[in-house]
Amino acid sequence: MKRVIVVVGIALGATGCVPAAYEATQLSCADFVGRPISERIAALGPPRATYRISPTEVGYVFETKETAFVGGYEYYTVNYLVGADRHHTPIYPVTTKCRGFVVSAPSPATPVSQRVIVDVL
User: Fold this and answer.
1) DSSP class of residue 1?
2) pTM for the structure as a whole
3) Could you give the strand order of the β-sheet that contains 92-104, starting from the edge strand earlier in sequence?
4) pLDDT tens across the length of the chain (121 residues)
5) DSSP single-letter state for residue 23
6) Of 87, 81, 77, 31, which Cα lies nearest the Cα of 39?
7) Which DSSP string corresponds to 45-90?
């Protein structure tokens, strides 16, 4: 009896760990922390403004808004009397807004490819 209770408890605990099919797998702004700012400049273009926050940090302001459409994945349901039916999940937009990034730059001579994002605005 104890084993059944333990197995049911583990199964119920593990069900919350699996993401739903409709959840967005898109990067949020905080997922860019630890990556070079040159990737964001290449993707978003030049920043609108650059500020020296402290002797070792620089702020880049982009004012970006990225929209991606997620969904439309196929899944099947089986009816053993008729056969399998093909369905699609709904498609919906997911918008990510990032105002800017705080970047670690020990000196003004540090190349942009070596400046690492430490925080998001």
Assistant:
1) -
2) 0.55
3) 49-54, 57-70, 92-104, 116-120
4) 556 554 455 555 554 444 444 444 445 778 888 999 998 888 888 889 998 999 999 999 987 777 888 888 888 888 888 888 888 899 988 877 778 889 998 888 888 889 999 988 7
5) S
6) 31
7) -S-SEEEEEETTEEEEEEEEEEEEEE---EEEEEETTTEEEEEEPP
Give how far the C-alpha of residue 19 lies from the chain's centroid of Cα atoms, to the nearest Å. Answer: 14
Element (H, E) at 97: strand 92-104
- What tokens were used for 103? 């970047």
Distance CA 44, CA 59 (A): 15
Contacts of 53 (CB under 8 A, 6+ apart): 59, 102
Angle value at C-alpha 91, between 20 and 19, nearest 5 degrees: 10
